Amino acid sequence: MRTMKVWAAFAVATIASAAPAESPREMLVDAAFHDTDKAVALARVDRARAGATALLARNADDQDAAMVQATALGYRAKLTGNRGEAVAARKQFEGLVARFPRNPEASVALGAWHVGVIARFGRIVGRAAVGAQKGVGLASLDRAVKLGGDRAMFLGLAGLLRVQLDAGDAHGVRLTEAAARGSTPTVIDRQFQRAASAVAALLHRGDRKGAQKLADRLLPLGQFGG
Fold first, then answer.
1. Whose CA is closest to 31, among 49, 17, 57?
2. Would you call 191 helix, strand, or coil by DSSP?
C-alpha cells in the first residue's frame, strides 16, 4: 500500500511538472480579460513583467518579450493609478515604436495608452498629468491598423478605443464593424472580434451610450472599471 501511494504521488508530481507553464503573454491576457480580483490581476501582471524581463536578459531583440514587458508596466499603472509608472510605460511604448516601426503591436499599444488616459481623465487633465495627447493616440491607432492588415486584434482595439472616447466617431464604428469580420490567427484576435461584434450590435441599434459603456467594459482591464 505504501509503495502504491509513493508511486501515485510520483505520478501526480510528474504530470504537474510536465504541464506547460503559462507564458508571460498568456499571463497578461488572463489579467486583462479574465481576472476579477484586482490584487490577483496585479500579481499576475507583475509575474508577466518579470518573465518578459528574464527573456529580454537572454535576448535583447525579443520583440514579443519587449512588448509584454512594456504592456505589463502599463497595466500595472492602470491598476495602481501610479503616475510615475504611467509615464514610464508611455516612454517604453514610444521607444518600441521607434525601435520596431513595422510592429503594429507597438503602435496600437502607444495609441491605447494615449486614448485610454484621455477617456479616463479627459484631454486637459490627461495631458497635464502624464502627457496624453488625443492626436498622437489616434494617429498611432491608425498606423497600427494599417500595419496589422485585417487582423481583428488591431481593428478591434482601435475601434473600441475610438468608441469608448466617442460613440459617434464614424471611423471608430467602421473599424469595429471591420473587426467583427477580421482574421483571427490568435486567441487575442478572437477576444477582440467577440468584443467588437457585441459593441457593433449596439451601435446598429442606435444605442450609442450602451455601446460606449460596453466598449469600456470589454477593453483590457475594463472589468475593474475606471
1. 49
2. helix
